[in-house]
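Predict the assembly for these two chains.
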Amino acid sequence: MPINWETDFDKALARSLTEDKPVLIDFFNPE
Amino acid sequence: MDAVTYPQDKVIDMIHRYVIPLRIQSSNTKYMTQFNVKWTPAFVFLDSGGAENYRSIGFLDGDDFIALILLGTAVTLFNHEDYDDANTKLNMILEDFGSSSFVPEAIFYRGVARYKGSHKPNYLRHAYDKLTSEYPNNEWAKKAHPYRLIDA
């Protein structure tokens, strides 16, 4: 199973609150 | 990261177990600016209020990335005064990822978390002793230098 990345900042924060986990942002350059 | 680290099953498991993973491209100037990110890969840990609690820059292999997940989570817990859970995560780094480059920092934070949770200053001295004996030239041994004055 691949990593289930969020791509929406606000949705990630909402999940952080409900799931009681920190958000880990991966800032990446796809090139 | 996509070629080496993220395909590993143990990395995927740890990500889903401990954090909400969010990917933001470097072309996204809104968030690159908001978090002052100038180079990638950059890994930033946020609490549920959106406040930054920890960051790391540059490529990490599987074990170091897992250690980062545990350390970033532990520091976030520490910052929210959840010292017992922070201590648990830091112990996992020391016990399961002892060759990680994040170990000295984990030793430092474990000592501080144990002190904050118990008010027993000898935990700080223990961190100093462990750092100076095992990682004498590491920056975290130098940061623990004042704790040499505490009774063991």
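Residues 14 and 23 of chain A are 10 Å apart (CA to CA). The longest strand of chain A covers residues 23-28.
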